[in-house]
Amino acid sequence: SAVISQKPSRDICQRGTSLTIQCQVDSQVTMMFWYRQQPGQSLTLIATANQGSEATYESGFVIDKFPISRPNLTFSTLTVSNMSPEDSSIYLCSVRQDGTEAFFGQGTRLTVV
Amino acid sequence: AQTVTQSQPEMSVQEAETVTLSCTYDTSESDYYLFWYKQPPSRQMILVIRQEAYKQQNATENRFSVNFQKAAKSFSLKISDSQLGDAAMYFCAYRSARSGAGSYQLTFGKGTKLSVIP
Lengths: 113, 118
Description:
The structure holds 2 protein chains of 2 kinds. By secondary structure, chain A is an all-beta fold. Chain A has strands at about 5, 10-15, 20-25, 30-35, 45-50, 55, 70, 75-80, 90-95, 100-105, 110. Chain A has no helices and 11 strands. Chain A is globular. By secondary structure, chain B is mainly β. Chain B is built from no helices and 12 strands. Chain B is globular and about 45 Å long.
């Protein structure tokens, strides 16, 4: 299984600022995803990070708010831009190799004040 | 679109006893995968068990087993000999087996919080 390192593990940010979350995998993976988990809620897919091209966003999520990069097959970043308290959530990176299951990073707990 | 429903927001079980968590799903597809993930307070999503829809045999992983009823679109998780370390949020998830854009992501239920009583 892939080992995923997600940074930072938590942060407290001022509204109006931006935070970039990093996801590093110890092996090349075919698919990388970013999920949001709002307090007490389930996981919602933000976007699929595509290597070398623009990410594919789900309904309700836009590139200007959640820009994503994936420069290679082992690394991706998610930026939460112009933050408001409603962005306070856990953000999780997920990867899929050739198998059926997905693996997750430990998540980033973001609090916007 | 697929949906996953977990009707039990919270459950509790005595240590060493058995508990069953419920999950139902809705899909028009015939081939797909189902998963149970565990999320302890550390936030790490840990895969507990998976089931391929084309397999009739229920998946088993040590103390964890599933009851997969394809016609009823039901996928329950049974935890035997419950341990304190089993306390966590449990999420049921669905993934399509078809290839192509939009088919690889997971659709999650709302989760069930499991408490284990010593």
